Each structure stands twice: as C-alpha cells, then as structure tokens.
UniProtKB/TrEMBL annotation:
The keyword Oxidoreductase belongs to this UniProt entry's keyword annotation: yes
Protein family: Belongs to the iron-containing alcohol dehydrogenase family.
All copies of domain Alcohol dehydrogenase iron-type/glycerol dehydrogenase GldA, residue ranges: 3-67
Coiled coil: none
An example Gene Ontology molecular-function term: metal ion binding
Name by which UniProt lists this protein: Alcohol dehydrogenase, iron-type, conserved site
Keywords: Oxidoreductase
Length: 70
C-alpha cells in the first residue's frame, strides 16, 4: 500500500485505501489455491499477536505468472 502511506495496520478491514497501488505481478505457489488472484490478504501482526484481514479492491495484481510445468 506504498502509494497510500501509513502502516499496514491502517488498512485492516475492507477497502481502506484511496489510491491504486504500484503495478503488482504475482507468482503462484505450489499449493495451487489461487490466492494470488484475490482481493483478500491475511497479514500476521506479531506485535499485537493477531492476524489482520485486508480486503482491498486496489490490491489486485495486473498480472499473475503461472508455470504449469512444475
């Protein structure tokens, strides 16, 4: 959320950012869950000992790289 400033905990919740993020390219994991294609993120805040949910329309990628030969 670099383009919006603040700290990641400022974005806990739904659609807290005002500006689009910098271009983002995601690479999928071997788990194959499709999490690189969603607007949902779970971030662990080790300081507060909580997992934050970020649901952000401005956090979607512009491209996802998938290698089907793995």
């Amino acid at each position: 959320m670099h383009t919006n400033g603040g700290e990641i905990k400022d974005y806990e919740g739904v659609n807290k950012s005002k500006l689009p993020q910098l271009p983002l390219i995601c690479v999928n994991t071997t788990a194959g869950t499709g999490s690189e294609l969603t607007i949902f993120s779970i971030i662990t805040d080790e300081e507060r000992h909580v997992k934050m949910a970020l649901v952000e329309k401005n956090m979607t990628q512009m491209c996802a790289v998938n290698d089907d030969k793995i």
